Amino acid sequence: MPSGLCPQTGVPTGLQIVGKTFDDMSVFRAAAAYERARPWTDRRPPIGGEQPTAVRA
């Protein structure tokens, strides 16, 4: 799952969550908990050497 942006480079990062066989709901709950604890969807990676910025509405 996407996990945010690298603070030094602004490059998008990812996170892999694994669980027991056929226990998909535990993985989904862990992913949802991470997204609540570390919101990142209002950020965008830099383009052309710019610094990462918040999304403007």
Task: Tell me about this structure.
This protein is an alpha+beta fold. It is built from one helix and four strands, in the order ββαββ. The mean pLDDT is 82.
Fraction of residues in β-strands:
15-25%
Strands in their spatial order, largest beta sheet: 1-2
End-to-end separation in angstroms reads 24 Å
Low-confidence stretches: none
The biggest beta sheet is recorded as: 2 strands, antiparallel
Helical fraction equals 10-25%
Q: Which class best fits the helix and strand makeup?
A: alpha+beta
From the alpha-carbon coordinates, what is the Rg to the nearest angstrom?
A: 14 Å
Shape: elongated
Task: Round the mean pLDDT to the nearest integer and report it.
Answer: 82
Contiguous helical run count:
1
What sequence of helices (H) and strands (E) makes up the elements?
A: EEHEE
Could you give the count of β-strands?
Answer: 4
Produce the secondary structure layout.
Elements: E1 2-5, E2 12-14, H1 24-37, E3 43-44, E4 53-54
Antiparallel strand pairs: 1-2, 3-4
A few lines on this structure:
This protein has 57 residues and is α+β, with helices and mostly antiparallel strands. Helices cover 25% and strands 19% of the residues.
Key traits:
alpha+beta; 1 helix; single chain; two-stranded antiparallel ribbon; two-stranded antiparallel sheet; 57 residues
